[in-house]
Structures are given as structure tokens and as C-alpha cells.
Write a structure and sequence with these properties.
GO terms for molecular function: ATP binding; pyruvate dehydrogenase (acetyl-transferring) kinase activity. By secondary structure, this protein is an alpha+beta fold. Helix content is 40%, strand content 10%. The chain folds into two domains: 187 residues, no CATH class; 214 residues, Histidine kinase-like ATPase, C-terminal domain (Heat Shock Protein 90, 2-Layer Sandwich). It is built from twelve helices and eight strands. The strands form two sheets. A five-stranded mixed beta sheet has the order 3-5-6-8-7, with helices on one face. Strands 1-2-4 form a three-stranded antiparallel beta sheet. 35% of the residues are buried.
Length: 475
């Protein structure tokens, strides 16, 4: 991801567009197929159908773009209309345009079997495995689409920073790059509600049984959301590389910051979490203290990372710590103050002074940053309610929540789209498992230790060498 440099050549962006159109379409196809095979009737719900429709629409757009590029690459006569200068499009109006060889081939295909897009063909062949006979499929009537130069693709070509293009493609490069960034932006917009929509499907398993009792569904959600993280990173990185405005940020290559300051990110996440806490607890939020482990003060607190993803993880951890602290020390103003969903009600002395109604500041949440030459560990500690030992194993389970009174879907605010500043304080049931997925995607980890009634420690491990490793894709 870093080899592009802060200002990649347009030809490199075009080569990456071609790779991503194929790579992302395959990933989307796998998730579409898996959504169709969900157990317990979950595949037939309205939410599953809506998400499948989004995946199919995005798949069709990506494979359509790839096929347009492949045809044009092979033959100048097959250039899509939108790649031609405006004056050429004007000359080739519907009234004057003569049929091309491509038009004649399309007419000949009328009534014939529909060609299977290459992304889906590759996915189907992979899913079949070598032990079974492949299904009959029409890959494409155009043999040029099978050219080896189109199949031997990589995300970044270390041998050639400016991939050679056919002469007839040179003038079309800006058109293709603009078309692809527009396409990716529309896919991001379409898929923004995916996490929320999928989460609305799980409560159908309740109250007959808890979500943690369905390991196959949990395994699906892990694969589904890990795949989504990878796709969003690929899309976000390409959009940032293509956007000249994004290059004004120092030390950034796409969405990756080569000198991500963990202290600054922690401060920003603390401010955002405090805002959410104050909205839910009558303007009160625990203070956040940030400290660097003095034993390793000579090690840098900066590393190569994606700041927005680090912020997301710390934001979720801080929300949980703040809520646990408020539930313990401010039970009379806490939402659902009659007790947690585990049935425990914690009573304490009034946090208000006898002489005035000014609340005494609750105990702080502490962030301790411990840098070493190989990794950085960020510990978020609180002295809140803690987690009962019997429930500690469930906190990484999707749709599991200790927020009382409602199901995870009911805990979502109206019209919640996934924005952090619209996020519920608790009860969504996705914060911790998604945070762990983010941490592990970047080769780190997330570990929780807690004592009921005493407090909780969460260790976020960030590896410095994650950018040199290969992405682990779960199909």
C-alpha cells in the first residue's frame, strides 16, 4: 500500500483500478453466495435480501467496468462512449453512428446464453474445488478477455511504476480513472448501512436462544465483516490516492499515515467518546488520563497505521469504559439504572455533594501507551462495574450486550447509519467484536481482562511491521 507514493502516476492508478475491479468483485460474490446459505431461515429475511441486492449491484458495476476496460485494451474500436472526447461523441450521435464490429457481435448474441462475468466465473470455479466437475458456463465470447496480460495482475507492480499501455489507451486514462473513483464512491455510499442492516437480522434468533449459542452464525459474521474491512480499506486507499486534496496531509500515502501519533489519536477518540457519554448521562463523563509508560520512553509512540481505524477501536473501548464507570458511580442518572441485563444492580453513595447539585467528577479512565521497538500496546483501564466471569467469554460475540431492556436492534437510534457520532452508548452488540477484527486485520490483537465490581483492562496491540505482511483474506 505504501509503494505507490503520495502522488501515483495515472497509469499506475489505472492498473490498480483494473486489479481492484476484479479483486473486489470476487470478494463481493463470495459474500453474496454466503448470504444465500445462512441457516435458521436468516437467508430469507428482508434484511438479507436487501444486503444481497446491494452486493449484486456493486458486483455488476465492477465487472462491467472491468469488461469495458478489457475490450478497449484489446481493440481501439471497442472504446466505451464515455471515454471519447465530447466532440467525438457528438459526431457519433444516434442518427449518424454506423454499426461497429462490436455492435454486430452484440446483436448476434441476442437470445444466446448470457455470458458469466469474469469475477463470478472465477468465484464459481474456486467454490467448486478441484475434486468436482465445474459447472458449464459461458465465460465470454471475446477471447481477448483471456489475454494473459489481464490475468497476471497484482495490486502493485514492483517492476514497473508506469505500466505500459496500448497507444490507443493513452488519451482514455483520465476517463477511466474518474469513472472508477465515481463507481467506488457510489459503492461506499450504497454499503454504508450494511453493518446495521445485517445486525437487524440476528435478533430473530432471540429470545429463544442467545446469539452466542449459534457458532456457525458467529463464524459467518466474522468472515463477513473481516471481508468488509478489507474491501473498505482497498476502496478508501484508492480513493485517497486518486484525490489530490488528500495529498495535502503530511506523512500520508492514501489512507495510511507513515507517522501515526498514537497519543494524538487517543486524545481525539477520548474527546468523541466523552461527547457521546455526556449526551447519555446528563452532561457528565469521566475524565481520560493518557500516560506513556516511562520504562519505554525512548521508544517512539508513532508507527505506520491508518489513523481512522485506530480511532474507531479506541472510541469503542473508551465508550465501554465510560459507561461502566458511570453505571457504577452514577447509577441514578444512568440509562437503565435499575440494573444491567445480567441482573446486577450496583448501589453506591450519592456522587453529588451535600451542599450543591454539582456532580463530583467520577474516577478517570486511563490510557497507558507502552511503545517497544516491535509494537505499541495501548491499555484502556477503568474502575467501573467490571464484567462477571461467566459473561466474559461472550463479550466478543456479535449481538451480545449488557445494556438492559432492549435487543441490540432496538438499542439503535432512529435512522442510525453507522456514524460514530450517531452511535449508541451501548447496546449495539458489535463494538468489541468489530474492534477485534480491525486489530487483527493489521496483525495486532485485542485482549480483555476484568473483575466484576472492580474494573476492566483492555489491551490493544499494534504491530509496527503489519504493512510488510500479506493480507489474510477469508473467503
Amino acid at each position: 500500500m505504501l509503494r505507490f507514493g503520495p502522488a501515483p502516476h495515472p497509469h499506475a492508478l489505472l492498473a490498480t483500478s483494473r486489479f481492484l475491479a476484479d479483486e473486489i468483485s470476487v470478494r463481493l460474490a463470495h459474500r453474496h453466495a454466503e448470504l444465500e446459505s445462512l441457516p435458521y431461515g436468516l437467508h430469507a429475511t428482508q434484511e438479507a435480501k436487501v444486503v444481497r441486492a446491494w452486493y449484486k449491484a456493486s458486483f455488476d458495476e465492477l465487472t462491467g467496468f472491468y469488461d469495458d476496460l478489457a475490450r478497449h485494451w484489446a481493440d481501439a474500436e471497442r472504446a466505451p462512449e464515455w471515454t471519447r472526447p465530447w466532440w467525438q461523441r457528438l459526431l457519433q450521435s444516434a442518427a449518424t453512428r454506423t454499426k461497429s464490429k462490436y455492435d454486430e457481435e452484440l446483436e448476434e448474441q441476442q437470445g444466446q446464453e448470457i455470458a458469466l462475468p469474469r469475477g463470478l466465473a472465477a468465484t464459481s470455479a474456486l467454490a467448486m474445488g478441484s475434486s468436482q466437475s465445474p459447472l458449464p458456463m459461458t465465460y465470454s465470447p471475446d477471447t481477448s478477455l483471456h489475454d494473459a496480460s489481464l490475468h497476471n495482475e497484482r495490486y502493485y507492480n514492483t517492476q514497473n511504476h508506469h505500466p505500459p499501455l496500448p497507444t490507443h489507451m493513452l488519451s482514455a486514462v483520465p476517463h477511466y480513472n474518474k469513472k472508477f473513483t465515481t463507481l467506488l464512491s457510489s459503492i461506499v455510499e450504497r454499503h454504508n448501512p450494511v453493518v446495521v442492516t445485517v445486525s437487524q437480522n440476528l435478533p430473530r434468533l432471540l429470545p429463544s436462544s442467545h446469539p452466542q449459542h449459534h457458532p456457525e452464525v458467529q463464524a459467518f459474521l466474522n468472515r463477513f465483516h473481516a471481508n468488509r474491512v478489507g474491501v473498505r480499506i482497498l476502496i478508501g486507499h484508492h480513493l485517497a490516492l486518486s484525490n489530490p486534496q488528500a495529498r495535502r496531509f503530511p506523512n500520508h500515502i492514501g489512507i495510511v499515515c507513515t507517522q501515526t501519533d498514537t497519543i494524538a489519536v487517543a486524545q481525539e477518540a477520548a474527546a468523541d467518546a466523552s461527547e457521546i457519554c455526556e449526551q447519555n448521562f446528563d452532561g457528565v463523563a469521566p475524565p481520560v488520563n493518557i500516560a506513556v509508560n516511562s520504562d519505554t520512553a525512548n521508544s517512539s509512540c508513532e508507527l505506520v497505521y491508518i489513523p481512522s481505524h485506530m480511532h474507531h477501536i479506541l472510541f469503542e473501548l473508551l465508550k465501554n469504559s465510560m459507561r461502566a464507570t458511570m453505571m457504577k458511580y452514577y447509577p441514578h442518572i444512568a440509562p437503565g439504572a435499575d440494573g444491567d441485563s445480567n441482573g446486577s444492580t450496583i448501589t453506591t453513595a450519592s456522587p453529588f455533594s451535600a451542599s450543591s447539585a454539582t456532580p463530583i467528577s467520577p474516577p478517570p479512565v486511563t490510557i497507558t501507551i507502552t511503545p517497544t521497538p516491535t509494537q505499541i500496546t495501548i491499555r484502556v483501564s477503568d474502575t467501573g462495574c467490571g464484567i462477571p466471569r461467566a459473561q466474559l467469554a461472550n463479550v466478543m460475540t456479535y449481538a451480545y450486550t449488557t445494556a438492559s431492556g432492549k435487543t441490540p436492534a432496538q438499542n439503535q437510534p432512529p435512522q442510525f447509519t453507522g456514524s460514530e457520532l450517531e452511535a449508541p452508548m451501548a447496546g449495539f452488540g458489535y463494538g468489541l467484536p468489530l474492534s477485534k477484527l480491525y486489530a487483527r486485520y493489521f496483525k495486532g490483537d485485542l485482549a480483555i481482562s476484568s473483575v466484576h465490581g472492580v474494573g476492566t483492562d483492555v489491551d490493544l496491540v499494534l504491530r509496527r511491521d503489519w504493512a510488510t505482511m500479506s493480507e489474510q483474506v477469508s473467503m
